[in-house]
Specification:
The chain is of the alpha/beta class and about 500 residues long. Helices cover about 45% and strands about 10% of the residues. It has 16 helices and eleven strands. A hairpin with a 7-residue loop joins strand 8 and strand 9. The N and C termini lie far apart (about 90 Å).
C-alpha cells in the first residue's frame, strides 16, 4: 500500500536538496581549486603587486543579493579571476617587499587543508584529543629549535599554545598579569596598574591594554633614539618605574621586542628583565617577525636573557612558512593564563579534565572555539625539516645583505639603521635633496621619499611600505616571500633607481 503524499511541494524540496559534503564532488571541485591556485602561483608575477583598484570597485561588479539557485564552480572561478584577483594585493608575489612577509609554502597550504577538512573544534581535550596533544608536542619541538629555556616547555613546567595573532597573545598575557597582580593588591587598585613599552613597540599592545581595561593614562611609551638604534633603554625604563612607584602606581607589564616593525631593532632583554624582576613586572617578549630567525644558531644571541621573561611569542605565519594565522605563545606559568581565562560550564565537563590529566586550550586563549592549527605547523616542520627551514631563512637574510650592498654602491641613498635580519631600512640621502631643493630641510627629504614610495607602488612592479622613526620617513625593504630570488631583488633595485631618477630630474617634492 502506497504512502499518501500530503505535501508534494515539500517532497520536491527534499528531492532537490543537495549534499553539501559529497565525497565525489569534493574530490572533483577540490582538484579544480588546487589547479586554479597552481596556475595563480605560476603566473603571479604578471599581476600588479599592490592592487590598483579604487575603493568600492567590487560593489559595482557583484550582484546586490545572493543567487537563489546554485552556480557551477567553473563560473565562480571565472568571476574570481575577473573580479577578485584585481582587488588582491599579492602577498606571495616575489616582488612583495612590504610590511613583514606572510610566507606561504606547499606544506603550510596542505596543512591548512587538512585542518579545514577535518574541521574539528578543539576547545578542550575531549573534543578532539589529537588537536590538543599534537599542539603541545609541536610547541615543545619549536621551543627546543629556538633553544628556549626548559622553563618555557611542557617538560619544564611551562608550555606553549597556538593563538591566532600577536594581538591575541599580548591580550592574553596582559590579562594574566593583571589578574595575578590584582590577587595580590586587591581589585580596588585596578586603576593604578601601569604598562610599559617603547615608542617602537607594535601598536597592538596599546589595543590589548585598552581591551584589558588598563587606564590609557597608565600606558607609558618610553622614547628611543637613533644613537641607541631605537632600542628600549634600561635606564629610561628604570626612571619611568621609579616615577610611578613614588606616585603610588603599580608597575604591571613590560613588552620588549625582538625585531621592531619600523627598523627590526632588538631590545636588550637581560637588563630589562632584571629591572622588571625587581618590581614584580610581567615581561612579555614580542618576536612576531624575527623570532623565526632564532632557529638559526647565529641569531640566538638575540634571545639572551629570555630565561627571565614570563612569556614569549612569534608569528609562524610571518617568516616560518605556516600561513596565516599561527602565532606561537610560550609561557613559564600556564596557571597564570588558566586562572584568568578559564571557563567550566557543565556541558564541557569530562573525566579527563576533572582528573587534571589533560590540557584544555580553551583556557589559554580569549575565544572558546579554536582551530586545529598544529597540523600545518607539524606539516611544515616534518615536510621541510629543521635544516631546510634554517637555510630558507638564511637565504632571505643573504638576499637582504645583497640589497644592502647595492644601496651602498649608489651614494644618492643611505642605509638608515644597521640591518639585523632580512629587512633593509633606507632612504634618499638628505645631501641629494639639498642639491636640488632651494628650501631644503628634513621635511623636504621626507616628502621626496614619500613620493618615491608612492611612485614605485603605483607602477605595480613591486610593493614597498614605510616607517616614520623620530620624525624621519624611511623606506622598508622586507625580504621573505617564498618565491623571491636574487633576480627579483636586482629588478626591484633597478625599479627604485629608475623612479628616483625621474623624480630627481623633475625636482618632485
Amino acid at each position: 500500500m502506497g504512502t499518501l503524499n500530503l505535501n508534494p511541494e515539500l517532497d520536491d524540496q527534499i528531492f532537490n536538496t543537495i549534499n553539501p559534503l559529497d565525497p565525489g564532488e569534493f574530490r572533483k571541485q577540490g582538484h579544480m581549486i588546487v589547479n586554479f591556485l597552481a596556475d595563480y602561483y605560476q603566473n603571479i608575477e604578471k599581476y600588479p603587486v599592490c592592487s590598483q583598484v579604487n575603493p568600492g570597485y567590487l560593489q559595482k561588479l557583484v550582484p546586490n543579493s545572493a543567487p537563489d539557485n546554485p552556480e557551477p564552480l567553473e563560473k565562480i572561478l571565472q568571476d574570481v579571476k575577473r573580479d577578485i584577483i584585481p582587488g588582491i594585493t599579492h602577498w606571495q608575489s616575489p616582488n612583495f617587499f612590504a610590511y613583514f612577509p606572510s610566507s606561504g609554502s606547499t606544506a603550510g597550504f596542505l596543512g591548512e587543508m587538512l585542518s579545514v577538512g577535518f574541521n574539528v573544534v578543539g576547545f578542550n581535550w575531549i573534543s578532539s584529543p589529537a588537536a590538543t596533544e599534537l599542539e603541545s608536542i609541536v610547541m615543545d619541538w619549536f621551543g627546543k629549535m629556538l633553544n628556549l629555556p626548559n622553563s618555557f616547555l611542557f617538560s619544564g613546567g611551562g608550555g606553549g599554545v597556538l593563538q591566532g595573532t600577536t594581538c591575541e597573545a599580548m591580550l592574553c598575557t596582559i590579562v594574566a598579569a593583571r589578574d595575578q597582580m590584582l590577587r595580590k593588591i586587591g581589585r580596588e587598585n585596578f586603576g593604578k596598574l601601569v604598562v610599559y613599552t617603547s615608542d617602537q613597540t607594535h601598536f597592538s599592545l596599546k589595543k590589548a591594554a585598552h581591551i584589558a581595561g588598563i587606564d590609557p593614562e597608565n600606558f607609558r611609551v618610553i622614547p628611543t633614539t637613533k644613537a641607541n638604534e631605537y632600542v628600549l633603554c634600561p635606564k629610561s625604563l628604570r626612571l619611568a618605574i621609579l616615577k610611578d612607584t613614588k606616585e603610588g602606581m603599580v608597575p604591571l607589564f613590560l613588552c620588549a621586542t625582538i625585531g621592531t616593525t619600523s627598523t627590526t631593532s632588538v631590545d636588550p632583554l637581560r637588563p630589562l628583565c632584571e629591572i622588571a624582576k625587581e618590581y614584580g613586572i610581567w615581561v612579555h617578549v614580542d618576536a612576531a617577525y624575527a623570532g623565526s630567525a632564532c632557529i638559526c644558531p647565529e641569531f640566538q644571541h638575540f634571545l639572551d636573557g629570555i630565561e627571565n621573561a614570563n612569556s614569549f611569542s612569534l608569528n609562524a605565519h610571518k617568516w616560518f612558512f605556516s600561513t596565516l594565522d599561527c602565532c606561537c605563545l610560550w609561557v613559564k606559568d600556564p596557571s597564570a593564563l588558566t586562572k584568568a581565562l578559564s571557563t567550566n560550564p557543565e556541558c564541557l565537563r569530562n573525566k579527563a579534565t576533572e582528573l587534571k590529566q589533560v590540557i584544555d586550550y580553551k583556557d589559554w586563549q580569549i575565544a572558546l572555539s579554536r582551530r586545529f592549527r598544529a597540523l600545518k605547523l607539524w606539516l611544515v616542520l616534518r615536510n621541510y625539516g629543521v635544516s631546510n627551514l634554517r637555510n630558507l631563512i638564511r637565504s632571505h637574510v643573504n638576499m637582504a645583505k645583497h640589497f644592502e650592498g647595492l644601496i651602498a654602491m649608489d651614494k644618492r641613498f643611505e642605509i638608515f639603521v644597521p640591518r639585523k635580519f632580512a629587512m633593509v631600512c633606507f632612504r634618499i640621502s638628505p645631501s641629494v635633496i639639498s642639491r636640488v631643493s632651494t628650501t631644503f630641510d628634513e621635511e623636504e627629504v621626507n616628502k621626496f621619499n614619500t613620493k618615491l614610495v608612492e611612485s614605485i607602488n603605483s607602477s605595480g612592479k613591486l610593493y614597498l611600505t614605510h616607517g616614520v622613526v623620530g620624525g624621519i620617513y624611511i623606506i622598508r625593504f622586507a625580504i621573505g616571500a617564498s618565491l623571491t630570488d636574487y633576480r627579483h631583488v636586482d629588478i626591484a633595485w633597478k625599479v627604485i633607481q629608475d623612479h628616483a631618477n625621474v623624480l630627481l630630474i623633475r625636482g618632485s617634492f
